[in-house]
Amino acid sequence: MTAWIVLPVSLAAFSITGIWIVYAMAVMNHHVCPVENWSYNVTCTEELPRPGFPKTCCTLQDIPLISKCGSYPPESCLFSLIGNVGAFMVVMVCFLRYAQVIEHSHHCWLNTSALVSGCTNAVGLVMVGNFQVDHSKSLHYVGAGVAFPAGLLFVCLQCVLTYRVAVTALDYWMAHFRVALVLGALVSLVLSGIFFIHESFILQHAAAICEWVFTVDILVFYGTFTYEFGTVTTETMMAALQQSQHGSGVLMDPMSRASTLGGATKGLKSPGGSSTSTHLNCTPESIAML
Asked: Which residue of 86, 138, 168, 175 pairs with 162 in a disulfide if CB–CB is 3.0 to 4.6 A?
């Protein structure tokens, strides 16, 4: 077990807790209405703010979309911090997962595509966090249009990769659980997009709820990588670096080449455990013993 096991849990816990704190601050500062409020008006008369209490009269501008919650200070500062730190942690998780799949001798276009989509998701998160929707609407929507589909593509590809590298029954149960998360994310994202384009107050509010469900769902999916990251070692990093050297045609010295060949004959580890599988290592020494 390594310290990297903390990274996915930290990403999920930090981001989920952070965005809900942003939401609470926005509600208390009368920047959005509570998520349980389903009553909206076309216009509202000016009301005296009551510290510690949510708004009593809500319009279409007060719907608690995640982006809307982080539009105004002081919550916008925390929203930007969450976007930047979260994006960095996403990149770290994506690279470690990419290296881990390579370590299991599964270098394929799916793994590379997952890395690219995960990093693209991180770029979108930075744009969403730093360009608030009420001040830089175009850039904010570009960021959201990049982050949401890229995040969904990443988790879909990771589901396929989870099945490919699965060894034990527990590995397959984790793959099944991730499929359930992906289905929930897909449904919530589609419904959010459908509801968002309508001007109905009820549908707009439903779009906000679906957006929250999608975001939490994706973050929980990232958190599940804790299951695999207990086996991440220095060799995991080297596997990714050596693969990139092979792909770029870099010549390796004899010692590095021997190290690579030695790593190739290593028993396959279960993604969620530290034990090796029972596959026979076909090295000359083992053949001689037979």
From this structure: 175
Closest CA to 37 of 26, 21, 46: 26
- Is 127 within 8 Å of 140 (Cβ atoms)? yes
DSSP 245-275: HHHHT----HHHHHHHHHHHTSPPBPTTSS-
Question: Residue 46: which of 30, 25, 24, 67 has the closest Cα?
Answer: 30
* Residue partners of 288: CB distance under 8 A and separation at least 6: none
Whether 183 contacts 158, CB under 8 Å = no
**3-class SS string, 25-69:** HHHHCCCCCCCCCCCCCCCCCCCCCCCCCCCCCCCHHHCCCHHHH
Amino acid at 278: T
Ranges of the chain whose pLDDT falls below 50: 248-268, 274-290
Question: What is the spatial distance between Cα 195 and Cα 45, in angstroms, rounded to a whole number?
Answer: 27
* Whole-Å CA distances, 23 to 64, 90, 283: 8, 22, 59
- How far apart CA 123 and CA 33 sit, in angstroms, is 29
Phi, psi of 118 (to 5 degrees): -65, -45
Give 71-103 as a DSSP string: SSTTHHHHHHHHHHHHHHHHHHHHHHHHHHHHH
In 3D space, the residue among 177, 168, 284 whose CA is nearest the CA of residue 225 turns out to be 177
Preceding peptide of 74 cis, ω within 30°: yes
**d(C-alpha 72, C-alpha 151), whole Å:** 26
* Whether this model's pTM surpasses 0.85: no
Length of the chain: 290
